[in-house]
Write a structure and sequence with these properties.
Largest sheet: 5 strands, antiparallel
GO molecular function: ATP binding; protein serine/threonine kinase activity
Mean pLDDT: 73
Pfam families: Pkinase (PF00069)
Protein name: non-specific serine/threonine protein kinase
Structural class: alpha+beta
Shape: globular
Distance between the termini: 55 Å
Enzyme class: transferase
Main location: plastid
Bound molecules: adenosine-5'-triphosphate
Amino acid sequence: MELAPHKVETSFCSDMATVGARGIGIGVNKLHPHNSSKPTSRFLGKRLRIKSTSESQRSARITSSNPKTLLVFAAGGELINAAHDLFVGVGVGLPCTVMECGDIIYRSTLPKSNGLTLTTPGAVLALGALSYLWATPGVAPGFFDMFILAFVERLFRPTYRKDDFVLGKKLGEGAFGVVYRVSLAKKPSSKKDGDLVLKKATEYGAVEIWMNERVRRACANSCADFLYGFLETSPKKGAEYWLLWRFEGEATLSDLMLSKEFPYNVETMITGKVQDSPKGLERENRIIQTIMRQLLFALDGLHSTGIVHRDIKPQNIIFSEGSRTFKIIDLGAAADLRVGINYIPKEFLLDPRYAAPEQYIMSTQTPSAPSAPVATALSPVLWQMNLPDRFDIYSAGLIFLQMAFPALRTDSGLIQFNRQLKRCDYDLDAWRKSVEPRASLELRRGFELLDLDGGIGWELLTSMVRYKARQRTSAKAALAHPYFDREGLLVLSFMQKLRLQFFRATQQDYGEAAKWIIQLMAKSGTKKEGGFTEAQLQDLREIQPKGKKKASPQRNALASALRLQRKVIRTLNESMDELNQRRKSLWWSRWIPERNEVRKYIYTSFFFSFLFFFYV
Ligand SMILES: Nc1ncnc2c1ncn2[C@@H]1O[C@H](COP(=O)(O)OP(=O)(O)OP(=O)(O)O)[C@@H](O)[C@H]1O
């Protein structure tokens, strides 16, 4: 039957919409007129209606007589459509579940789609994308931090110049800089500014400024209060980075631990007065708990924002007299895994006394950080693959040990302990078995302290000091450990016990668990029951298929999965290496202000122009 052209509005349904079944594939490759077997050319000159958000895409006149043109035209529209659907969680599903194709003839009588049909796969995809963007180290918060917060902060914070300071006592001198206690030449309000600390640093100063600024915006309480950092160039000394902090206090944890009064001296500092309750293990345990909680809290702050310190040791933990808490200092060796700054997998700047056995925070198979956008996009994957934060956890575990065992507080004591632990394959339980029988009184006292409350302190310690980074607890999980519940293990509530069980479960080596499951399946396995036969188990153990063994579905699936995994890793490595070969500059050091004030005005005008254009 022929219809009058003005009445006919033809509808097409594309084969694309099997996206729901296929994941995110955009399979636009052919059009077919729904409910019709008539050739495509039959619809020439009619209106082609495709699902789209803009009116121009919604409707267009077909002018070509070539069916290929028709297909390309529709495919383009569908491509835009699919991209739109992917991000708003709309329209992903089987063809007729997401679009109203209707009748070929009376299409115009159909109700207009409102364009927002939420489907389950679409919502899952959108949620997945959001979780990825917010997963540690946080791509989305990083974007906000770098392009908005950093700019705004720069406009409003006070700036300093070389001539503003009067140098005082030298506080320390390391390989990369000298630290002084300083005061302001003109003290506008002496109470507010108080005493300051100034570090004149060499090339690593740039990194330290970046890290301190990141920390100040993301977790200010974790580290010493950073005020300002700038580049000072003089013909005599060349380029020098000047970093300024508020003076936090006289003592580091190292100074306090070396005192015979430890840990009671810390208690006095935290509470602000001398306690007169009887000395003993219980009280010492409580003080050590408090120090560990503060240290883990500071580490959790750093790790949540994607920063790994890499030089955690008592010398870099300062007691802040203002807040009466311990804070971390010296971020010169830190790595920002969010954008890949200072992350060089095969290079390390570590203190061997406190370094984890892996020595590198990332696998040496992982290539150096590529350009910032690529590093940022991949950062959640790399973080999960390497768990670089566990490097700091190992160092924190050693500090815990030093607090419990006075003999390990000296350099020689710690070096000797490290040797013993290495001989025991980094197994703290094995070390304990080897030293406990002939332990001195002091050593035995340390074990007693950790064994309080059913050995919950020892349990936390062994979950921090482990050979495999993946088996070490994170700072967040450690903070949730019942060791930090004041009442101890015996009076744990049902929920706390459940939490402890969960914590223990997360500490398992899942490589072993996988083997165990395979064996269990094999034991229960006959073909009838669906388990593995011995021959299949052998194949699984060997993983790599050998020779011309007869293929089984399980073996093939496993082999394909392994091949795919290897291919993905190889491709990732190759592409990142390629990117690295391009000359990299310290692009981010552009953020560091130079002495003159001109930059500030440039930034200010840039920011306000941006706001103005945005408004317009
Ligand atoms: N904010 C601060 N408040 C008080 N004292 C500080 C502060 N920052 C640093 N110090 C003191 O300065 C000393 C050296 O600081 P820092 O470790 O950052 O310098 P460094 O040059 O990296 O030294 P090293 O190489 O020995 O680690 C610290 O041990 C501490 O005593």
